[in-house]
Design goal:
177 residues, mainly alpha, two-stranded antiparallel ribbon, 8 helices, 2 strands
């Protein structure tokens, strides 16, 4: 899985989400976000749908298992999740979920995949993705020079000159006091 995932700023304006909200109520948003989090956290691009998953989501968001089941069914109906994979394998995923996952893991050396669950064509859509960890160029190392030393030196000079000024002012008060 991955540690975080992007949530589009227009998530609530998506027609599929709006249809789910209209049919299942406002709590459906929390249920969808919980489902997406489970997908990205566990396998990264899918989650197996079973009674345990409905319980876990219901418990996480404070909804009934019936409400979670209703949201999942509506999400599959409006193609928020793939109808075919849900019917055939009881798996929740979508093309968008998989695209976001593969974009997030491009730096990984190894990704374990279940080919039956794939909706994206890795050969055609992701053949140009470069795994930067196995290239000879390390893109994590900057070619720009660091100026930390000169900044530290200036700070020390400023601090020592400030200390001298404070000491001079303190002596002036003592002499006048």
């Amino acid at each position: 899985g991955i540690d975080y995932y992007p949530l589009d700023v227009d998530f609530l304006q998506d027609i599929k989400v709006r249809k789910i909200m209209r049919a299942c109520g406002v709590q459906s948003v929390a249920i969808l976000i919980s489902l997406l989090s489970s997908i990205y956290r566990d396998e990264g691009y899918y989650v197996v749908w079973d009674s345990d998953m409905s319980f876990l989501v219901a418990d996480e968001v404070g909804a009934s298992e019936g409400a979670v089941l209703e949201v999942v069914n509506k999400a599959v109906q409006v193609d928020f999740f793939s109808k075919d994979l849900f019917k055939q394998y009881k798996v929740l995923t979508s093309r968008g979920i998989q695209k976001r996952f593969f974009e997030a893991v491009t730096r990984r050396k190894r990704i374990d995949l279940t080919s039956e669950y794939l909706l994206v064509d890795l050969d055609n859509e992701y053949n140009n993705l470069v795994n930067v960890n196995i290239n000879s160029i390390n893109d994590d190392r900057s070619t720009q020079s660091k100026v930390k030393e000169s900044k530290e030196k200036k700070t020390k000079e400023t601090t020592s000159s400030s200390s001298k000024k404070v000491a001079i002012i303190a002596r002036a008060f003592e002499d006048n006091g």
